[in-house]
Amino acid sequence: MKQAITAAVVITMDRGYSVHKPGYVIIDGDSIQDVGSGEPPKGSYDERLDLGNRLIMPGLVNSHAHTPMILTRGMCEGVSLFTMDGFLNTLRYYESFLDADLSEHTVSASLAEMIRTGTTTFADQYFYADRIFRKTDAAGLRGLICYGIVELGDEQRRKDETRMCEEFLEMCQKHPVIRGWVGPHAFFVDNSLDLIDIELRLARKYDTGFHIHFATSNEENDYCMEHYGCSAIEKMRDLGILDVPILAAHAITVSEEDMDIIKGHPFTPVMCPSSSMRSGFPAAPVKSYIDHGINVAIGTDNVCAANSHDMFREMDIGAKLIIHREHDVKALTARDMVEMATMGGAKAVQLEDEIGSLEKGKKADLIALDLSDIGWRPFCGEDYYTQIVYSISGMSVTDSMVNGRWLMRDRSILTIDVEAAMEDTEWATEQLKKRIADA
């Protein structure tokens, strides 16, 4: 199917940061055939769609999420999930009452929230990856689903988890928009050297990467310094871990010396602004990463810490947080933040040749925003990025497309029964509360 889509503004996020006003995007099947200014070229189209006073831009990439954890939204108030105490005694306690069926009932609600607020690609790290896969396939989102592994020294768990991880990676091999990665919860802290060796072999065998939690504190560094006499990054380099693409959620306490090491490797720190603040932890050193030439992405983390999957909200909070951290109003521009949420995320998940910008030959992943919404006025000059980051929210998103397929039109989600998804989540929450009460 060949489509010609026009709108008041098209932001491309290409290398020249081209903005077309008005503009068009020509889509043939699942790919972008052309992007430009004014009217579309003359030709034969199966559909011509004029979005009117809307802004078309690349879909956002949520580079760190845990979709089933919408189940615990609002259940971790006053607890820092970045500490081992908060992780083990709150989150892991709740999760001990979960199973695959209960978790699966929650995923569609998270995916609907992502679609509604402009995310077209997400990187998920959790248990029950096969169930997340099934719901993502139905919803049509582009997903990097990472099989979450928490070992904590349990040899039998190690064997079971790595076997199921490999089965999941096999399942993802030929899917058009879903990829499988390995998801060690945290190296050294709850993934032993024996397990890391197995995980490395899996990543290399399936030409995939790691999605980890890293450096929320000095915990990994302290462990590696005590046991190996070096930093965690140095140990990861020595083990060959850094040769594998890595999504490193949070990455708050990485030193300048370690940045010099990781800048030559496919290592992307993922800033999660809301969950860092809610857990009482500082912002990641994003400016230093950028100054070192290191790609940076942004994610929402779990919604029991961040309470929302809205990536526009994370861009807003993240930009302010970086400026506040550096005490420098020029530390990060609004365009920098939009880049982190689009091309930065695309590079993080090794899809920069396919998504992240609107360019000829790339996949047709895009969203449209309503320029008549409050927050766009008054509009001065051509700086749409400032309005996108600071003035609007994901609720300005009207339309969403992935791989040439509409997932949402005129704020109506087409691929998920939202009411049923919310009812499923409510049911699962009540079941979880009952299991805890009966324990």
How would you sum up this structure, described in words?
The chain is of the alpha/beta class and 439 residues long. The protein folds into two domains: 2-57 and 365-412, Urease, subunit C, domain 1; 60-348, Metal-dependent hydrolases (TIM Barrel), CATH 3.20.20. The chain has 15 helices and 19 strands. The strands form four sheets. A seven-stranded mixed sheet has the order 3-2-7-16-17-18-19, covered by helices on one side. A four-stranded mixed sheet has the order 5-4-1-6, with no helix packed on it. α3 (129-139) links the parallel β9 (119-126) and β10 (142-149). The longest helix has 21 residues, at 418-438. The radius of gyration is 21 Å and the shape is globular. The N and C termini lie far apart (55 Å). The relative contact order is 0.16.
Percent of residues in helices: 25-40%
CATH class of the largest domain: Alpha Beta
Overall structural class, as computed from helix and strand content, comes to alpha/beta
The major β-sheet equals: 7 strands, mixed
Poorly predicted runs? none
Question: How far apart are the first and last residues' alpha carbons, in Å?
Answer: 55 Å
The averaged pLDDT comes out at 94
- Give the tally of β-strands: 19
User: So, CATH architecture of the largest domain?
Assistant: Alpha-Beta Barrel
- What is the tally of helical segments? 15
Query: What is the name of the CATH topology of the largest domain?
Result: TIM Barrel
Strand order of the largest sheet: 3-2-7-16-17-18-19
Count the domains. Answer: 2
Taken from the alpha-carbon principal axes, the silhouette is globular
